[in-house]
Design goal:
- The chain contains 15 helices and five strands.
- By secondary structure, it is of the alpha+beta class.
- Strands 1-5-4-3-2 form a five-stranded antiparallel beta sheet.
- The protein binds a DNA duplex through helix 6 and helix 12.
Length: 306
DNA sequence: GGTAGACCTGGACGC
DNA sequence: GCGTCCAGGTCTACC
């Protein structure tokens, strides 16, 4: 079946897909030729389906298996969250109008950041981006999904269908639930998923959620002040200043800048002739953007591009 | 508050 | 093929 979920204008499908690297991480996959973003979703009734998401007229076109009405509603809510379809960036667009380095913002409808259906998935993925190279993040996420995810229900892409190419067969599992990871052990995760010292942090978070000791998903809609939200995120082992700022951006809070080594490089080449700088120098350069600091940094038209 | 070192994987490089 | 070096944030201990 196929349906469109409308977005608040202005909206550009590809601007969200390209907002950061999430589209490269399982269970996402992206087809450059058709500009289709695929995502393997486990519904609340445990059914696992593939969503094929593409540009709709002022919204997102969803193509998937036949769904019952409650399932279709759940898919619509999920895609709405993933693309931030109702988010309003008009104030930021107006504020950035006079800045040449942000002149492209309004035209490209920038501001939305691609999110996973659950904050649990985004936190785990963010932890997997820390202290490692992007290629390793892709591999660690892939192994985590392969090991603890749930297989698609039937269909041509079922992994049991060995006639399909290997690459396609790999894209057939949903992201793990906290319960599926919690049922394992830090030692097993370290050895099998090869996430190194991150294993205890990942397992601990999964256990806390699975045992009902930590309502992480509540933070998605919480109206806590950003500082409090940040404190809450930083109680998670493995989440430091960079990871917290990255997660706040995903949550639509833009008061902090995710400063990693790449950010230091970009700011250094932008204003300090490539000399070594500190996170304070980055903060100083974006201070004037206040609550839009993160957005201005994220979508800045950098001189340095790697 | 600032700094140093350990943590672990995987890519690059030299042999 | 093997060994070594290095990049990449977080956490802890220490000053």
């Amino acid at each position: 079946m196929k349906f469109i979920i409308p977005a608040r204008k202005p909206f550009k499908f590809m601007s969200v897909v390209n907002s950061h690297g999430w589209r490269q991480l399982a269970p996402f996959s992206f087809d450059e030729d058709t500009k289709t973003l695929s995502y393997i979703l486990r519904l609340s009734n445990a059914r696992v389906i593939e969503l094929k998401l593409s540009d709709g007229k002022d919204g997102v076109t969803v193509e998937t298996d036949k769904l019952r009405k409650p399932e279709q509603n759940e898919v619509a809510d999920t895609v709405d969250w993933m693309f931030g379809l109702n988010m309003d960036f008009s104030t930021f667009h107006a504020a950035s109008r006079a800045e040449p380095k942000l002149a492209h913002i309004k035209k490209q409808a920038l501001g939305r950041v691609l999110r996973s259906p659950t904050l649990f998935e985004d936190v785990i993925k963010t932890i997997l981006t820390t202290n490692t190279l992007w290629g390793a993040t892709i591999n660690m996420t892939r192994r985590l999904v392969d090991e603890f995810g749930f297989s698609l229900d039937g269909g041509l892409n079922n992994p049991k269908d060995v006639s399909k190419p290997v690459v396609e067969a790999l894209q057939t599992k949903s992201f793990p639930t906290p319960e599926s990871i919690a049922a394992s052990s830090p030692e097993y995760i370290k050895e099998k998923i090869r996430v190194g010292y991150r294993a205890p942090a990942i397992h601990e978070l999964a256990v806390r959620i699975a045992m009902g000791q930590f309502d992480l998903e509540f933070l998605k809609t919480s109206d806590l002040p950003t500082l409090e939200l940040r404190k809450g995120l930083m109680t998670i082992n493995g989440v430091g200043p960079y990871a917290a700022a990255n997660l706040l951006m995903i949550l639509g809070r833009h008061d902090f800048i995710p400063i990693d080594s790449y950010a230091l490089k970009m700011v250094s080449y932008e204003w300090y002739k490539g000399k070594p700088i500190t996170p304070k120098d980055v903060e100083k350069r974006f201070e004037k953007w206040g609550g839009f600091k993160g957005l201005a940094f994220w979508f800045w038209d950098w001189k340095y591009n790697g």
